Amino acid sequence: xxxxxxxxxxxxxxxxxxxxxxxxxxxxxxxxxxxxxxxxxxxxxxxxxxxxxxxxxxxxxxxxxxxxxxxxxxxxxxxxxxxxxxxxxxxxxxxxxxxxxxxxxxxxxxxxxxxxxxxxxxxxxxxxxxxxxxxxxxxxxxxxxxxxxxxxxxxxxxxxxxxxxxxxxxxxxxxxxxxxxxxxxxxxxxxxxxxxxxxxxxxxxxxxxx
Length: 210
Prior knowledge:
30% of the residues lie in helices and 24% in strands. It contains 7 helices and 11 strands. It has helices at residues 45-53, 74-79, 96-103, 110-119, 135-143, 145-148, 165-180, and strands spanning 5-13, 15-16, 19-20, 25-30, 33-38, 60-65, 68-69, 81-84, 153-157, 184-188, 199-202. Strand 9 (153-157), helix 7 (165-180) and strand 10 form a beta-alpha-beta unit. Helix 3 (96-103) packs across helix 4. The longest helix is centred in the last third of the chain and has 16 residues, at 165-180.
């Protein structure tokens, strides 16, 4: 493994109902780099994210963070990780501001939260319960975490879902800034980025090979 790799996955596979969901995955991600995970619907992209973040345990293979198995550096790994799934995970009974407070690092100030919400186009919506917001606004609440996160490794599962062109351009600018600052991003999307250079990795569902 190269010393510059922040993340390495070796021979990662997952069984569901005694069958492999996708062919074993081998990938590496370095600081200052974005890796675009491609694959058809149902190929296992979201499952791969859950395996990499430790939510699920792989049937075989290992995940390394800065050269160490994540089981040996779990606290450091999770401290450096930001995961935003294709579902926004926003609590409907909480306001946009309360949700972002709950999802942010403990030292995050009220001013930082207000700036993040304004940056994603939610100025004036901070105190509104999220069950009164649209799906796109829910998504913006979750993605506001990109503004205030201090994590070096971002996992973004379909980050552009339910966003308009302006929202997509803004999120891509956040991704580009993170890469330029030495961060790393692994993301899935059904569309290519307009300006940001990425590597691509295709995940192949087991049934697709037959």
